[in-house]
Structures are given as structure tokens and as C-alpha cells.
Amino acid sequence: MPTARDFLSDVVAADGFIATDRLTGELRITKIELANAAGLSREAVSKSARLKAPSTQARLRDVVEIVNRILPWAGSVQQAFAWYRAQPIPSFGDQTAEDLVKEGRAEAVKRYLSRIAVGGYA
């Protein structure tokens, strides 16, 4: 089971870009499922020109950072990703982290997770 640090190093390539092949392998999903979970088009994660676009990389980085923050609590990358996709967050009207990332509200999720990490309320 990768630690939080291992997960990040496993999915970020030497050039600093999120490597979708590595990420889908860690999450045990397809590129289509990754695109859906990040609110991206299938082409954004499968065509190299679109994959390196700043907007695509930012969205993928948001997914990776949120999963990475959940990893210590969840116990595995797959369980952290399951939380990302399915766990309703009361502070956001029971939307999931996935819903919020798709809406462009990843920073709100990260602030929420930071608050919880220091003992704040959900």
C-alpha cells in the first residue's frame, strides 16, 4: 500500500505533469472513469496535447491532492478515491468531493479537509 508520499511520486512524472497511466493504475480505473471523476472530457486525458493543457493538469492535480489528503484516514488509495467519489460532505449540502471538483470548487474541498485535519467540524 503506497504511503501519501509514494502516491504523489507514483503519479507525478519527472516533468511535473500528472501521468494518467500511472494515476489510473493506482486508482484501478480506466481513463474514461478518470475523466468522469475529474469532470474532464475523454480526450482531455487520452490525447497528449490536451493532457498537458494547464486546465487539464490543474483538474487532475486537484483530484490527486484531495485523494492524497484522504489517504492517511482511508487506509488505501482505492478507499480514498471511493471517499472522493461517494462520501457526501454535510458542509456542502451533501455534495461529494467529486461533485465539487467538477464545479471548479476543489479549493473549497481542500480547505474543508484542512479544517477537519486540525480538529474542526464537518
Summarize the structure.
Residues 75-117 form the Antitoxin Xre/MbcA/ParS-like toxin-binding domain. With 122 residues, the chain is mostly helical.
Question: Describe it for me?
Answer:
The chain is mainly α. The protein contains nine helices and no strands. It has helices spanning 4-11, 20-27, 31-38, 42-46, 48-51, 54-74, 77-86, 97-102, 106-117. The radius of gyration is 14 Å and the shape is globular. It starts with a helix and ends in a 5-residue tail after the last helix. InterPro entries: Xre/MbcA/ParS-like_toxin-bd. Residues 75-117 form the Antitoxin Xre/MbcA/ParS-like toxin-binding domain. This is DUF2384 domain-containing protein.
Return the string of H and E elements: HHHHHHHHH
Q: Tally of extended strands?
A: 0
Shape: globular
| Fraction of residues in β-strands | under 5%
The largest β sheet comes out as:
none
> In angstroms, what separates the terminal alpha carbons?
27 Å
Outline the low-pLDDT stretches. none
Mean of pLDDT: 91
Q: Structural class of the helix and strand makeup?
A: mainly alpha
Number of helices: 9
Q: How many domains make up the coordinates?
A: 1
Helicity range of the residues? 55-70%
Specify Rg, calculated over alpha carbons.
Answer: 14 Å
